[in-house]
């Protein structure tokens, strides 16, 4: 689906209904959000999807098109539903062989998390359910799908403190605890970048929604100029490829840390890892092969594309990195897999996930970048957290706040 800068506002999409913007009462924000995707006034003649424009809040009584529900891109799991009791997550069967929650259960559980993670009376962070700007950059978070963490994946969570946090969040003691896999579309001028590509067809049917959701918001694969890779784990690199293993993004260069490419390409490294990691190596290699001739490697904190630099965050993988967006005085960091569970790892940054290639380095890196963010006070989000905000120190850990 290509983006037509003019047509979409003249013609409502198939199945769309007229809606009246509600600008009073408690639902102002949701009305704003509901109408934003087809907000005509947010469009200019510039060849840029209107979703990337600053939202224009509908005036009282102003009419706008509302997309039919099924067509709405799920920018993030927090978008719906807004207030579901925490216990909702324990209902309903698992839907896939991967043991992931159904999307519905995931949404229900995730909606309950902010209360548990943030606590009463504390400033909560901003849900990743809408585009936002950093200077001239327009960033749109896209949910690739949910995955479930368990105590087996964060062994330190199998503890009195872990159980307390999980119980307070209303989550099942043994998991799965739902986490998002986020992809970020970034636009500046006529350039379109995508940070990570989601899981594609590699990790089961609950994941791999990024491509269709990107297309639904006006960023089809052929429009993407550069793929900015935080690292090459399957939930980030699987979506680079179609199901047949060929490149999904025909015009994009793949920008990744040199060390990351070296690690996944190294037979010696593969032989030193548990055999269960072999599929990860194969997926990373397939992705690099699919983009052969257009992989651009960067060392350390070099520039990925104009205004966006790598922030090396080694440990999770050797070339694991975040991306710092900077425009004028505005800065924002996408810190990738620094945190896999906001609930558990913000208060306990020493707790590691079993996916870490070097767990103690990953923990030290996490502590280091979170300390830096406390001082720098810049906005941040990540690949597996449902919000964006600033980091503050609290007790022995950290909290993400608005
Ligand atoms: Zn990840």
Automatic annotation (TrEMBL):
It comes from the Bacteria. Keywords: Hydrolase, Metal-binding, Zinc. InterPro entries: MBL_superfamily_lactonases, Metallo-B-lactamas, RibonucZ/Hydroxyglut_hydro, TAT_signal_bac_arc. One of its GO terms (molecular function) is hydrolase activity. Residues 1-33 are annotated as: Disordered. Residues 180-384 form the Metallo-beta-lactamase domain. Belongs to the metallo-beta-lactamase superfamily. This is Putative Zn-dependent hydrolase. It comes from Azorhizobium caulinodans (strain ATCC 43989 / DSM 5975 / JCM 20966 / LMG 6465 / NBRC 14845 / NCIMB 13405 / ORS 571).
